[in-house]
Design a protein that fits this description.
The protein is an all-alpha fold. The chain contains 19 helices and two strands. The radius of gyration is 25 Å and the shape is globular.
């Protein structure tokens, strides 16, 4: 009876759910959002490392640097942060626009430039006093990840208008003798004028509303409600569940669910924590370094079991192969070596273990036991090291160890049963 229910579930997933998820994963607008966010990552990591060095949580190091280079030795932090985190929205806007237009087979570079101009059109500069003169200027921090949702929306609108006008030949055509680099800029001229005029009108209209501007409207009406839902415990639980359910059937759950939908929300949370002293628990580094312990599925726990306790040759060999990549959060040898994909026995802990790791760390952070995760590090950074770097505290290491322990407890009965099964099959094969 149990096997029959399992077969029905697998059939339903293969026939109904997976085709829908596959279409979602190849949807061009979601892919464009993913590409735009990914384009920001190098800058965010560089900015995070400047923050880690400037605020390294060891007083002896800080004293040494101050005595050696002077009291203002860490002034570089503000410079680098403004040059990285401070322009995150601009980079994302360019990346989303150019990626979307490129997906239609059109040169995306001019569209990306127009997307940046459109974004700057709707972001109202601040009024500053320069001596006795009042000047308009975009202040540092006004274009960081807190503006990310507005930037992505502007990028999608810009990309769609641009590609439609190009496809319908509403452009200036130059002779073939003109160099392509020059011709491309004239191709973008009419779509660019149209887009900038549109967003100028949008800015002027929203200036008359209670919000005072288009970004403020997006933040109050769309971004903030979505972010509060998506970055709550239950929102993160849904993200984790959907990601690993898709991975269990061989689909890239991170690319389908995490990168285009949830990651922008988590990045905004992290930016708020850094710039405004907010206390958002779920940031992208919280998820990336607290849930992907050894990779999706928190598979470092199962690798440790296979390496230390496995009886079957299969699991021992997979453990030996998987430990080195697993330390750097790469788990393909485990995912496809056991295999976990389409394996009803191992799909269950693969889905539940990261949820357990996330829950333990979320609750620990909520009660103040663990620090917030605000520093970006590469996703391949090994566990424990990443826990310290993302939080600047030894308690970040403790948080990861607790998450790993929770994942191990979930994995243990399932991987032990699978180990026994494989061991018996190997003994029977040797006897034959």
């Amino acid at each position: 009876m149990k096997e029959e229910k399992t077969n029905k579930f697998m059939t339903f997933m293969e026939e109904k759910f997976l085709p829908l998820a596959g279409k979602l994963g190849s949807q061009r607008h979601l892919l464009a959002l993913r590409d735009g966010v990914v384009m920001m990552m190098p800058l965010l990591i560089i900015g995070a490392f400047s923050m880690i060095i400037a605020e390294f949580p060891v007083q002896a190091f800080l004293d040494f640097m101050a005595n050696t280079f002077g009291e203002n030795w860490n002034a570089f932090e503000g410079i680098i942060m403004h040059a990285t985190y401070g322009i995150a929205a601009i980079i994302a806007c360019y990346g989303v626009t150019s990626s979307l237009v490129k997906s239609y087979g059109i040169d995306g570079t001019p569209a990306g430039v127009i997307g940046i101009s459109a974004l700057m059109t709707v972001v109202v500069p601040s009024l500053l006093l320069d001596g006795e003169e009042v000047v308009e200027a975009w202040i540092a921090g006004s274009l960081d990840a807190t503006l990310l949702f507005t930037a992505m929306l502007v990028a999608l609108i810009t990309g769609e208008i641009y590609r439609r006008m190009v496809q319908k030949n509403i452009t200036i055509k130059l002779p073939d003798s003109v160099p392509p680099a020059v011709s491309a800029q004239f191709t973008a001229l009419i779509p660019g004028i149209t887009i900038i005029i549109l967003f100028t009108i949008i800015r002027l209209l929203f200036a008359k509303t209670v919000w005072g501007g288009f970004p403020e409207f997006i933040s109050d009406v769309i971004s903030t409600p979505l972010r509060h839902a998506g970055t709550s415990y239950f929102g993160t639980l849904i993200a984790c569940l959907m990601e690993h359910l898709l991975w269990s059937f061989g689909l890239h759950g991170s690319a389908i669910v995490i990168f285009p939908i949830f990651e922008p929300l988590w990045l905004i949370n992290m930016s708020e924590n850094i710039s405004a002293g907010a206390r958002n628990i779920v940031t992208f580094t919280f998820y990336e370094n607290g849930v992907w312990i050894g990779g999706s599925g928190a598979t470092l726990a199962v690798v440790l079991y296979m390496l230390l306790f496995a009886k079957s040759k299969l699991l021992k060999n997979v453990g030996k192969i998987g430990i080195a990549p697993g330390i750097f959060n790469i788990n393909e040898p485990v995912t496809f070596g056991l295999p976990i994909v389409l394996n009803p026995t191992l799909m269950i802990p693969y889905i539940l273990a990261p949820i357990a790791a996330m829950t333990v760390q979320y609750l620990g952070t909520a009660i103040g036991l663990f620090p917030l995760c605000n520093n970006m590090v590469p996703w391949t950074c090994p566990i424990l090291i990443s826990g310290f770097l993302t939080t600047g505290s030894i308690m970040g290491v403790v948080a990861q160890l607790c998450g790993l322990a929770a994942a191990f407890i979930v994995w243990l009965p399932f991987i032990r049963a699978y180990d026994d099964k494989c061991y018996k099959e190997e003994l029977e094969s040797e006897e034959k």
